[in-house]
Amino acid sequence: MALSSARKAAMAAVAVAALGGVSFFGASASEAAPGPAGHASSTPAPAPASAVVERSVSAHRQAPQVVTRVIGKGRVDGHRWSVALEFHRTLPKGYTLPTLPDGASAPGTSLLCQRMYIGGVRVDHQGGPWSDCQPVTGTNDPAPAGEMGLWGLHDKGTDGTRLMVANPEPDVAYGLITLTNGHQIKAETVTVPGTTYRAWAAPVPDGRTIAAVDQYDDHHHQLTHDTNWH
Questions:
Q1: CB–CB of 227/212 below 8 Å?
Q2: What is the dihedral of CA 10, 170, 153, 4, to 10 degrees?
Q3: What are phi and psi of 39, to 5 degrees?
């Protein structure tokens, strides 16, 4: 259940929550080592067109159909919490596109799901396996960007342990939640590999009230300021 400012049609958005000291969630990046150097005086012959096509087909076949990236995890109020984005390259079996007000099916060739857990229980699990999922078109649909939601296991995310999840615009590097007691929770934006889908997530402890949610770019310039979350 969630209290959300998301713009999604017929589907849920994102989540929140926070603990004691300032938290920082991020993902590590790796860089491939360069291969062995070729002979200085020789120029490699171009690969035959058939070989190029074969490699392209092989790479396409090896692309995973489901890509999952953990956005944030930790402990709050004595419970483990986690948030992950799950991208399905094609609409999974058993999933039906939602119906628009005019009776047509919502557009989408892929599926983006937000999987949120508090104490081992998935938020909105009562809605079935595709709750908190939305159809998207390919790997860089801009539709999810700009959404933010506060999520919990009951009372529409208004009390108890909660999770705040944002699907920010491309220039947002991290979010900063300030509680009314002055405590701040910082969460870095994480991107699903091979896509432009991104999110940041942070926990908000039971009994705590949010004073403001701010987002910053990688130069620490403030991009948004929101005081409507409680």
A1: yes
A2: -50
A3: -70, 130
